[in-house]
Write a structure and sequence with these properties.
There is one protein chain. By secondary structure, the protein is an alpha/beta fold. The chain has one domain: Alpha/Beta hydrolase fold, catalytic domain (Rossmann fold). The longest helix is centred in the middle third of the chain and has 15 residues. The termini are far apart. The relative contact order is 0.15. GO terms for molecular function: hydrolase activity, hydrolyzing O-glycosyl compounds. Keywords: Hydrolase. It holds the Pfam family Hydrolase_4.
Length: 217
């Protein structure tokens, strides 16, 4: 059952967690970090991860980003739906809802957020990360979306574009057929872009990347 982690008097992050109490020597727990416009409800990846953790006596933490799923907020609140906000929320919920070492499992944007914690998080938090698994990782994906929007004639004059202008991007995963992405989301993300060439020298624990290609014969 989902619980609520209070971010402010009127904002909360919905999460689920399992803590194994049967083993004295603690194994690393798993923290699952969703992608953009993804949520913990009705997710096959989340269901498989929960079953794996329970069957193998591993702690786990799963949550919905701000304005996603069961968490508070709305995508129309453009100044709060940002990479920076989601990174800070991830740091806060890990600090308060996990205690032992953690393996971060980041799906799409979640891998980017996981790397931000490992590279820029507080020292105590960074030291508890023992590995990261990236599922179809999407680091710096906002730059590609901004380029795509401009090719469609949007956001061409960045200095005069309103922060609450939206690009309704087509997606087969959306019930409406599109996902709203604000100009402010794309602009703010530039504060958190990562230099992929230097990541290897700054991270000392294992990173595993998973990609799936479906071939229809």
């Amino acid at each position: 059952m989902a619980r609520r982690f209070a971010i402010s008097p009127h904002e909360y992050i919905s999460f689920q967690k399992y803590v194994n109490h049967s083993i004295r020597k603690k194994l690393p727990g798993l923290t699952y970090v969703n992608g953009f416009h993804s949520e913990m409800q009705n997710s096959r990846k989340v269901t498989h991860l929960i079953n794996f953790c329970v069957n193998n006596n591993l702690d786990f933490l799963i949550f919905d980003h701000y304005a996603h799923g069961l968490s508070s907020g709305s995508f129309t609140d453009v100044f709060n739906v940002t990479i920076g906000r989601m990174y800070n929320d991830l740091c806060n919920i890990m600090k308060h809802e996990t205690t032992n070492s953690q393996i971060l499992v980041g799906s799409s944007m979640g891998f980017w957020l996981s790397l931000l914690v490992a590279l820029k998080g507080e020292e105590q938090l960074k030291n508890r990360i023992t590995g990261i698994i990236g599922i179809a990782p999407a680091i710096n994906f906002t730059e590609n979306i901004l380029k795509e929007a401009k090719e469609k004639g949007l956001f061409l004059d960045e200095s005069n574009t309103s922060p609450d202008s939206f690009y309704h991007r087509q997606s087969k995963y959306s019930p409406t057929g599109t996902y709203p992405i604000s100009f402010h989301f794309l602009q703010e993300a530039r504060n958190h872009l990562l230099d992929l060439k230097n990541i290897r020298n700054k991270i000392k624990f294992p990173i595993v990347l998973l990609h799936v290609i479906l071939l229809i014969m």
